Amino acid sequence: MTEEPSTLYAKLLGETASITWKELQPFFAKGALLWVEPSLDLIEVAQAVAENDANKVSAWLGTGEVGKVSESQALALLDRDPPLWAVVVAPWVLIQDRATT
Description:
Blueprint: H1 7-14, E1 17-19, H2 21-29, E2 33-36, H3 42-50, H4 54-63, E3 66-68, H5 71-80, E4 84-89, E5 92-97
């Protein structure tokens, strides 16, 4: 059984782009970055944030699978400079390290 992706999912998927940590640093400084663990679907998380799905987002925040980028995490990203995927769901920029998947 195959499910059709929602219109919002497709829109967010189309707005997802590869980005470097250097380009994301201003958003980190503003506290606007949300880290999404590679085990999750970045677009599914973005859709839940966009739809204010408190149950899903709270669960991910509770397990640490989604959260604000910490200072130590930012330093590690600066050192490693991995390829990242990002999608904007204002006021957030959701990011994910795609190199580890």
